[in-house]
Amino acid sequence: MGILEVTGVNKRFGGLQALDDVNLNVEENTVHAIIGPNGAGKSTLLNCFVGRLTPDTGTVMFDGQSLIGRKPYEINQMGVSRVFQTPEIFSDLTIIENVMIPSFAKRDGAFKLSPFAAVRAETEIREHAEQMLLDVGMADKKDMDASAMSRGDKRRLEMAMCLAQNPKLLLLDEPTAGMARADTNNTIDLLKQIAESRPITFVVIEHDMHVVFSLADRISVLAQGHVIVEDDPQFIKGNPKVREAYLGDAHD
Amino acid sequence: MTDQATDGFVPTQSKSKGASAGGALGLGKKDLRLFLLVVAMCAFAPFILNPFPEGSGLAQFNAGYPDLMQRFVIFGIFAIGFNILFGLTGYLSFGHAAFLGVGSYAGIWMMKLLTLNVIPAIIGSIVVAGLFAAIVGFISLRRSGIYFSILTLAFAMMSFALAYSVLTPLTGGETGMQLQYFDPRILDAPLPEGQTPRASLFGLEMAASYELEVGRWLFTFNAGYYIAAIAMLIAFYGSIRLFNSPFGMMLRAVKSNQNRLSYTGISPKPYTLAAFIISGMYAGLAGGLLVAMDTQVGAERMFWTASGEVVLMTILGGAGTLIGPVLGAGFIKYFENIVSKINKSVLEGWFAWMPDWMTDVTVTIIYPFVGKGWHLTLGILFMAVVIFLPGGLVQGGQKLATVLRRDRKSKDAERDAAIQRQAGE
């Protein structure tokens, strides 16, 4: 049984069948990539996992519990973190504060009224956040304003924010979108290192084949809202269905 | 949540590091200094605000009389509370005067029904305003941005309309509410017929003052002012603690990126609602103190201009800063009470030394900006602050400090260079 099980998910926007009977099984502690041409429904699918969208029909089970109808923060509290396609950070706060917030969320839950506690005294939270920044190689910038960072740094910060919660499942929406080759390789190395050192399951949505084949243990190919193939990476490249739907499409 | 609270956290090596950086009262060194400065200013306000001798031409700029000093600190509380909502979460409430007014009505009813002691009145004001804020906030916070502002404005205007007409038995309608000698006051002994009830704190009347004459100077120490000032200091202290708490950090995160916050496992709604209620309670405290000082309320206290005023105070002083709202409140109240008193004959007195025609011209030019035209000056100042100092007066102070420091540094550098030159020659 997988940590994330998706069965018969349909989602329709007006006349567009965005997701068509999607089935997916993500094994624990693996990197599962979801690939597919533009408009295949990858982001829609991801949004069904995090509570932004509710599927019309079908089930999404995480760790034995249904995710359908839950709010984003509830799903996060269950152990699902996400990295956005365009980095979403708290740009008015400092970098260390950005990483402390998810740590607070993990420790104190979705809401805690503590107007008289002092952030200053939260040594454990601060040190944990510093460690996370060290892990992504940003420890030297911890007191900078988050708004002053490059896009690549923002992405790494977002990663540190997710890691600070020690999630069971980490969803990455095109983690290397808009990056230069060198940055992309750094990101791949970082992700590999995290995947090897921590018991985290990854679901990666990605365009870049280089990234997909360097990371993924398992790949699902989505085309026109439907999973056409789910297989190990070495069998994906040679699969005629994939060639037709994905690579063929890309050559048009 | 607690059983998994610590997993994933690295073991801590030095627990005392963070805590040792702080000063007393649970505040950091910088905040402690600021707080003590404000304490000192409140304590010595009767001196600081009365720099000019009695009877001198400048005496009308003295602000050290009880009524105005009370207003400074009470509206300071109002603005501090407003800033907790607007400065931290970015939600711009345009109806905060409603909570001030509701607090005032609750306070006067406590004084009518229970006792003339101000403590129950103030507690009643805070509680009732907090409850009212919970209702208004619960509904208004369903929307954000301009829609939130409009909803709060609508609530405040509804409150005003209700207080002004429909709820006359509760609010006194157009005439407002005053204390009467025949009010029930179940905890107090009845007053003799015709005697005006006076608010007190365990027998110490709010209006009680001690006057100190030093040469030509006259300083007034008023019981009501000091009680209000203590309330303001407690409110200010609470706001510093809140700003530095994880709760305050979450409120800033709400302002910065609500989307990210939801996907980080935080539910923004209870945070904004809590900030709204706390802010409403601050307004209630201010309303209660206003009643404690002048023992009357009118519905105009809830009018939209009163809500607008606290927005001006906060932005003028510096939204999101600790001391800004207090400065802004002081600034506006000073204008309202002092600059508005400069009339034509005062101006003519000032410029009497000029030739007659010049006096006329000067007075004609300046007159629209003072006296009843004080709003004009305030408006121009407000525009200047928003355009040139978006961080308010606090930012102005910081800029000035930076310039002075740079000045000193460059002077030091010049001197060093001069010494080096001399050494070289």
TrEMBL record, chain A:
<dbReference type="GO" id="GO:0005524">
    <property type="term" value="F:ATP binding"/>
</dbReference>
<dbReference type="InterPro" id="IPR051120">
    <property type="entry name" value="ABC_AA/LPS_Transport"/>
</dbReference>
<dbReference type="GO" id="GO:0005886">
    <property type="term" value="C:plasma membrane"/>
</dbReference>
<dbReference type="Pfam" id="PF00005">
    <property type="entry name" value="ABC_tran"/>
</dbReference>
<keyword id="KW-0067">ATP-binding</keyword>
<dbReference type="InterPro" id="IPR003439">
    <property type="entry name" value="ABC_transporter-like_ATP-bd"/>
</dbReference>
<dbReference type="Pfam" id="PF12399">
    <property type="entry name" value="BCA_ABC_TP_C"/>
</dbReference>
<dbReference type="InterPro" id="IPR027417">
    <property type="entry name" value="P-loop_NTPase"/>
</dbReference>
<protein>
    <submittedName>
        <fullName>Glutamine transport ATP-binding protein GlnQ</fullName>
    </submittedName>
</protein>
<keyword id="KW-0547">Nucleotide-binding</keyword>
<feature type="domain" description="ABC transporter">
    <location>
        <begin position="4"/>
        <end position="249"/>
    </location>
</feature>
<dbReference type="InterPro" id="IPR003593">
    <property type="entry name" value="AAA+_ATPase"/>
</dbReference>
<dbReference type="InterPro" id="IPR032823">
    <property type="entry name" value="BCA_ABC_TP_C"/>
</dbReference>
<keyword id="KW-0813">Transport</keyword>
<dbReference type="GO" id="GO:0016887">
    <property type="term" value="F:ATP hydrolysis activity"/>
</dbReference>
Automatic annotation (TrEMBL), chain B:
<feature type="transmembrane region" description="Helical">
    <location>
        <begin position="114"/>
        <end position="139"/>
    </location>
</feature>
<feature type="transmembrane region" description="Helical">
    <location>
        <begin position="270"/>
        <end position="291"/>
    </location>
</feature>
<feature type="transmembrane region" description="Helical">
    <location>
        <begin position="311"/>
        <end position="335"/>
    </location>
</feature>
<dbReference type="InterPro" id="IPR043428">
    <property type="entry name" value="LivM-like"/>
</dbReference>
<keyword id="KW-1133">Transmembrane helix</keyword>
<feature type="transmembrane region" description="Helical">
    <location>
        <begin position="223"/>
        <end position="243"/>
    </location>
</feature>
<dbReference type="GO" id="GO:0005886">
    <property type="term" value="C:plasma membrane"/>
</dbReference>
<keyword id="KW-0812">Transmembrane</keyword>
<feature type="transmembrane region" description="Helical">
    <location>
        <begin position="72"/>
        <end position="94"/>
    </location>
</feature>
<dbReference type="InterPro" id="IPR001851">
    <property type="entry name" value="ABC_transp_permease"/>
</dbReference>
<dbReference type="Pfam" id="PF02653">
    <property type="entry name" value="BPD_transp_2"/>
</dbReference>
<feature type="transmembrane region" description="Helical">
    <location>
        <begin position="376"/>
        <end position="396"/>
    </location>
</feature>
<feature type="region of interest" description="Disordered">
    <location>
        <begin position="1"/>
        <end position="21"/>
    </location>
</feature>
<keyword id="KW-1003">Cell membrane</keyword>
<feature type="transmembrane region" description="Helical">
    <location>
        <begin position="34"/>
        <end position="52"/>
    </location>
</feature>
<dbReference type="GO" id="GO:0015658">
    <property type="term" value="F:branched-chain amino acid transmembrane transporter activity"/>
</dbReference>
<keyword id="KW-0472">Membrane</keyword>
<protein>
    <recommendedName>
        <fullName>High-affinity branched-chain amino acid transport system permease protein LivH</fullName>
    </recommendedName>
</protein>
<feature type="transmembrane region" description="Helical">
    <location>
        <begin position="146"/>
        <end position="167"/>
    </location>
</feature>
